Amino acid sequence: MSLRRKSQRHGEYTQVSVTDIQLPDPEANPAELVERKLMLERLTQAVTQLGDRCRELLRLKLQGQSFGEIQKRMGAQSINTVYTWDHRCRQQLLDLMGGDWEADNR
Amino acid sequence: MSREEIQRLLGGYATDTLSEAERSALFAAALEDQELFEALAKEQALRDVLQDAAARQQLIEALETKRQPIAARAWRWVLVPAGLAVAVGAMALLIVGGFDLRRAKPPARRQAVVADAIALQPAPPAPPAAAPLSNIRPRTAPRRLLRLPAPSTPEPSAPLPPPPELTASRNSAMPAGALAGAAGAAGAANQMNPAMPAPVLSFAARSSAPVARLKGMPMASLKKAEVAIGYALLLKGADGLYAPAPPGAVFHAGDSVRIQVAPKAAGYIYLYRRNTSGGWEPIATQAVEEGQGYVLPAVGGLQSDAPAQVELLLVLSRAEQNATGGALAANTSAGSLKITLEFR
Q: Does A43 lie at the interface with B, CB-CB under 8 angstroms?
């Protein structure tokens, strides 16, 4: 009895081969990479068609600035104004991309 | 923060612009609002792309690129409709031009038909006591002659005559009933009455063009005619007079047919008929003048007692030939016309 416990403790009967363990791949699969690349191309094409305010707003957002900082940079009276601008610009960009970020529905 | 304001935060999720308080408020609202939750889920795809620093930088560079000035953009909006307008205009021009061409063609064809069809010339007033020398019955319908195929390479020595006017009536020039049977005038020349307008040459054929298939006429084919010979088929009616066979007329066994010829040039016309042995048998010989009408044979007619095809050969020679061999030998150099009559 003690011998059995000892072998279990040592893992003699519970060992799993390292080849049987499926490890997650930190890299995206090729299909996803292609989709992202295509989406980025469409996005790049779409942002060039935005208006000046939306372009500036999006540029600041991509640079990592918060809405509060953006409010100051763009001279908005309130943060709600920035929210509204951002909401409209997002909708405009979405329309330029065919109504969906991923699929090309145009 | 109201619900509408929270929904406006959606744009900051993908770009990671939200502060901690804003993100918490957005997630809390999304848990209660299914529509907002789904919208947030859709933003994930954009967020995944923007997580990549290189992609982010690419977008920033695209955004920093100076936009085209308003004037340039406006000009582009002008150019697009202008280009469309030019394309539509060009297409409209092509269509209109095509219609014009189609409209312009028929008159040209009609003119050619007029020029080549019988085209009765205005005849001089007929003397009332003109001697009836031909047995052609006056007709009410205009004569229908046949046209040989147009020349592929026109000869410089033979310009075509201008098409005569179609104003004269055949009946007015030909006294009714004035034509007697040709049998009585067998010895005389079978040249038609000068008072009767001579059949104007209806053929511009001056080439060795291939055989033309003619519709609506009893004859089957024509062969080359280097010298123009116009002809019409005359069918003997119940009254014993020969009249032009109507278009599409069918010859029957026992019918008597004559050929009215109108040579372009003066010379001699020889009419042959293919016999059973395959050779050509001379039927009639006629000295002819340019522009005059003649009927061959002068005596009797071409007949077939049984349904058969009768092959005829008209040879026009400028010089007199031996009818039995000379004209046939000159067949290649003089004008010739092959006619096939089908008796059913």
A: yes
